[in-house]
TrEMBL record:
This is CW-type domain-containing protein. GO terms for molecular function: DNA binding; zinc ion binding. Residues 84-155 form the MBD domain. It is found in: Nucleus. GO terms for cellular component: nucleus. It comes from Eragrostis curvula. Residues 23-78 form the CW-type domain.
Length: 184
């Protein structure tokens, strides 16, 4: 697994979410070393976004952190004590004055990605970004629609604790009650 992950705690342990909150569902960021495969936590979202931006071209390793080497024990273990979601690599950093948020759906079936635009409105797709730039052309030289990326992290099924509820919700969403095969 080479993409940068973002583990997020289950809602019961995470910060309380209010409706319309502008908080991510992600409680903790981590990155995997390309040499020793240990997981290292990343202190801030901004730092995570920087690592993610060039992840394929410039893979992360322990030596990039001043106080760290591959000999140090892992910061965090990849297990089901929290729900892990794996982010796509190479997502550009959000343009200035915008914030990129990923929100976990209540039933853990999917995450949604959107940007909070400089006017406080949410952009959920490229069309929304284009509409914003039409309405506020002064931003056109500062941000281009191509800098926005709406791909969402993949939820790691094994780490979703209540798997039966999760599967039921997912099956319901896909419109088929009986998922073929794969029963353990
Ligand atoms: Zn390492």
């Amino acid at each position: 697994m080479v993409s940068s992950p973002a583990p997020s705690p289950p809602p019961s342990t995470g910060p309380q979410k209010k409706r319309g909150s502008t908080k991510d569902s992600v409680g903790l960021y981590a990155v995997q070393c390309c040499d020793c495969y240990k997981w290292r936590t990343v202190p801030t979202k901004e730092e995570f976004e920087t690592i993610r931006e060039n992840f394929t071209e410039d893979p992360w390793s322990c030596s990039k952190r001043p106080d760290c080497s591959c000999d140090e024990p892992a910061d965090i273990k990849y297990d089901n004590s929290c729900v892990w979601v794996i982010d796509k690599p190479d997502i550009p950093k959000p343009p200035q004055d915008t914030e990129r948020l990923v929100i976990m759906r209540r039933d853990f079936t999917k995450m949604d990605a959107y940007y909070v635009m400089p006017n406080g409105k949410r952009a959920r797709c490229e069309g929304d970004v284009e509409k914003f730039l039409e309405a506020f052309p002064e931003y056109k030289d500062r941000m281009s629609a191509s800098r926005f990326n709406f791909s969402t992290p993949k939820i790691v099924e094994e780490t979703v604790s209540d798997k039966s509820a999760w599967k039921a919700a997912k099956a319901k969403k896909q419109g088929k009650a009986d998922t073929p095969g794969g029963k353990k």
